[in-house]
Each structure stands twice: as structure tokens, then as C-alpha cells.
Amino acid sequence: MYDRNVRRRRAVLLLLVGGSLILLTAYFGEAAGGPLRSIQRGFLEVLAPMQEGASRALKPFSDLAGWVDDTVAAKGERDKLVSERDQLREDATRADSLARENAELRKIVALGEESGLKSSRPVTARVIARSPTIWYATLTVDKGSSAGVEVDQPVAGPGGLIGKVSEVSGGAAKITLITDSTSGVSVKVALTGVGGVLKTAVGKPDDLVMDFVSSTEKVKRGERVVTAGSRSSRLESLFPPGIPVGVVSKVDSGELDVYQRVHVRPFADVRKLDFVQILTRPKTAPELTAQVP
Amino acid sequence: MGIPVAIRLWVLGVVAVILQLTAVSQVTLLGVTADLTPLIIMAVGLLAGSVAGACMGFGMGLFVDMALLQTLGVESLIGVAVGYGAGRLRELRDPSHTLVPVAAGAAATAIWTVGFSVMQFLLGVDAPVSFLLARDILATIVVNAVLALPVYALVRRAVEPYLPDDPRRRRRRAYTTGGLSPISRA
Questions:
Q1: Confidence (pLDDT) at B99
Q2: Which of A6, A117, B25, B116 places its Cα 20 to 30 Å from the Cα of A48?
Q3: Are A194 and A183 in contact (CB under 8 A)?
Q4: What is the CA radius of gyration of chain A?
Q5: Angle at the Cα of B153 (from B149 to B154), degrees rounded to 5?
Q6: Are B83 and B45 within 8 A, CB to CB?
């Protein structure tokens, strides 16, 4: 009985495998219009209406399943796109930041070449903290006494003077900006040499006021203002002469006033500083005079 | 195996292939479509033995080849292997664990998909094997393994009452219900 079953099983297996191989060989070797292909096409003709009917009947179910699948796929795609968007935003922000840093550094380099600040041993420092108030009073930079920075050294930014070092630690320094209310810089109009003291109005970092300018002096809008670098026994200027500070934006003069108020728009925007240059060996006025032949 | 069972298996095969071609193939899961054909063949093999499994595999494979205008004999050859293998598993081991259909379904799908790919290459499909193919095969195996248990349950429901009673299963049923258990006798 057992042998008969085994023999039957093997015979069936042999028959089916043989049948498959015969079909395979015959189908593979026959021409496009061969009998097997004709049978296949005929079978499809018969099956097609059944398939169509079943397809219509099952469409709601396949649509439902497709909808579920699409929803899951869409969620996955959304998550992927969100992370891609975040990455692109991050990249764009970084690119913007780098472009701005690059522009600032270029301006600083240009300032050094134009104003002869290179000989003042400038140390380029990155701004690591800034005063969060509207007073635009101080900045903290990442260079300190270990880089040769000392208190009262002048600091230039992209475009011109921005302030002086007020406190120093080993690896950082605090800069008091020219827009700080306690700040006062002796400046002069570059072309005419008309001098004055530059002060600020709180909350208006882009509008400095040049005070103590005699009403008799002629100051025109658009003239450049630079540091005077004066050395008097009473009040020695910390800033070397000739550093660009800003441009005259407006002149207020009353007929009865002794002094006129000259408004100066600074070249350096203290609200958008990323890099500054600390002049660790500023040249004072006599030194500069001695250099002139 | 009597005529009623053969007719039931034939109907089951036809309905399954039409369902596969018209509905299941249009739904993607994990980026692939489920393939009920190897699962049905595996289930019939596990329930009815190697001869019935091999016949079911041959028949369903041939039906798929005919319906899809593929090279005749390819799917039927692989179907014979799947059905016969599942049937021999039942005849030699008679596994009774609930999760056997899952493992058998995964194995059947692996044989079905890999076998089909190999046959295509043997028949002269001149395409480089990409990682995508391996990934799709793996995903199909996973999807089919998930579907194996419900498909097996459905096939069992449709076929088992008409199958001749297996003495080994009858004995096992008697033990599990307590009829022949030495403990119940004591």
C-alpha cells in the first residue's frame, strides 16, 4: 500500500514536471502564430470578460486599499520632504550667513588697505555676543589678552571705526561701541579738517552727532568724517587719526547758536557685525606726523 | 481525494487567480504587490498533501501563464515545486504549530519569486541584477508572510471538511480533546 502511494506520488510529480518542461520547450521554440500561443490568446479572450467583471466588482475594495496605501505613502513622503525642506533651509541660512561674513571680511580687508591700518597690527575677532538692548552699547569678541588685545585699543569694523576695547580677559574682550551713550570720539571732516566730538543718541545707531562744531565752519552733506587722533594733555584720543567713521547726513544750525550739530551716518552698521578688527598697535598722531616726509 | 474536493480546488484556484489579477495586483504594500498564488498552493499542499499540492501548483501556474500571456510552463513548474514541497512537509513532519503557515508561506513565496527570476534569466532575459530586485523579492516575502495565516485559514475553511480524514490528525485531535489521554483515563 505504502509502495503504491509512493509510486503514485512520484509518477504524478514526474508527470507534472515533465508536462511543465514540455510546455516550456514547446512554447519557447514555437513561432509567434503557433498553436500554444493561439490557445493562450483564445483563453485570454474567454477570460477577459470574467476579469473585467471581477475588476469592476472589486474596484471599490482595491480603491480602498489603494487609498490606504497612498495615504501611508503620502505620509512617508511628507515626512521625507519636511526633513529635506528643513535641511535646505539650514543650508540656505548657512549660505546667507557665510556670504554676509565674506562681505564683512572683504570690507575689513579693504579698510585695512585703504586706511593703512595694517601697520597697526590688526587682530580679526569674531563677535560672539552682543548687547540685546536697543542701546547698541557693547559687543563681546572671541579674542582677548592672549591675542595681544588690551583695554582702550580701537576697534574697526567693515567700513570704519566702531568702538574701543573696554574689558579684556584671556580669550575674550568686551567692545564699547561708538554708539554707546558714554562714548565720545574726536573726529574731523576729512576734506576741510573741521573738528568736533562724535556722540550718539540712544536707540539711533545710524545717526551720530558731531558736536562742538563752530557755526562759522562750513560743513556739507556727504563729506566724509574720520578720526582726528588728537593728543591733548587733558584728553588724549584713543583712536589713531584717519580711520573712516561715517559720512555727514545732515547739518542743523540755528542762527543764534554758537555750535552747529552735524549728523553723521556711520560707515559700519553696528547692528550687523560678525567680525571686527582690533588695532593692537594703533599709531598715534605724532608717530604719523613723524612718518610724513 | 474525491471529485468534490478536486472541483473545490479547481474553483478555488480559478477564483484566486482572477482575484489576484484583478484586485490584489493593483494594491501595493511596502512598495510591492502581494501574490496570493504561492500562498494558496502552499495551503493546499499543507492541507491535502504532496500530490494535491503539486497538481494545484501546476494548475494555478498554468492558469497564471495563460492569463498573463507568459511563457507556458514557467509558473507551473515552480508551482509544482512549491505545492509538492508543502505537501511533503505535511507528510514527513506533520507540523501542528499555529505559525507553520507563516514560515511555509514565506518559504513558498521565496521559491516562487526567486524561481521565477531564475527562470527568466535562464530563458534569456538579458538584464543586470539590481539591488532593487532583491529588495522587491524580500518585501514580497514579508508581505506574503503576513498574509499567509489568513489565506491558510480561508483555504482550510473551504477545503478541509471535504478532505479524507487523516489518521495521524484524528489521533492528535483525540489527545488534545482528552479522549485518548492517559491522564483523562486516570
A1: 85
A2: B116
A3: no
A4: 41
A5: 120
A6: yes
Q: Does A22 touch chain B (CB under 8 A)?
A: yes
Going by pLDDT thresholds of 50, 70 and 90, the confidence category of residue B107 is very high
Amino acid identity of residue A251, one-letter, is V
Distance of alpha carbon B50 from alpha carbon B48, whole angstroms? 7
Q: What is the interface pTM, i.e. ipTM, of the complex?
A: 0.79
Q: Which residues of B touch A36 (CB under 8 A)?
A: 72
Contact: A69, B28; criterion CB under 8 Å:
yes
Give CA–CA dist B151/A138, Å, rounded.
75
Confidence label for A289 from pLDDT (cuts 50, 70 and 90): very low
Continuous H helices in A116-245: none
Residue A250 has what DSSP assignment? E
Q: Nearest CA to CA, how far is B184 from chain A (Å)?
A: 34
Grid cell, residue B38, equals 504561492
What's the rounded Cα separation, in Å, for the pair B152 and A128?
68
Lowest mean pLDDT among A114-123, A159-168, B56-65: A114-123
**Total-model pTM:** 0.53
| Amino acid letter for position B12 | L
A187 contacts: CB under 8 Å, gap ≥ 6: A195, A196, A197, A198, A210, A225, A226, A227, A228, A245, A264
Yes or no, beta carbons of B58 and A51 under 8 Å apart: no
Give dist(CA A246, CA B158) in Å, integer: 93
Residue B22's alpha-carbon distances to A58, A84, A170, A191, B26, in angstroms, are: 8, 37, 77, 90, 7
Helix (H) or strand (E) holding A138: strand A138-141
> A209: which strand partners?
A199, A263
Average pLDDT of chain B, as a whole number:
83
What gap in Å lies between CA A198 and CA A213, rounded to an integer? 10
What are the cell numbers at A13? 510529480
Q: Which residue has the cell 591733548?
A: A232
β-pairing, A154-157 with A160-168?
Answer: antiparallel
Question: Are the CB atoms for B13 and B63 separated by under 8 Å?
Answer: yes
The better pLDDT of the pair B87, A6 is held by: B87
Phi then psi dihedrals of residue A90, to 5 deg: -60, -45
Per residue in B130-178, pLDDT tens?
A: 777 788 889 999 999 999 999 999 999 888 887 776 666 656 555 555 5
Work out the number of other CB atoms within 10 angstroms of the CB of residue B119. Answer: 17
**Which of A24, A36, A61 has the CB atom closest to B74's CB atom?**
A24
Q: What's the confidence (pLDDT) of residue A293?
A: 40
Collapsed DSSP state (helix, strand, coil) of residue A140: strand
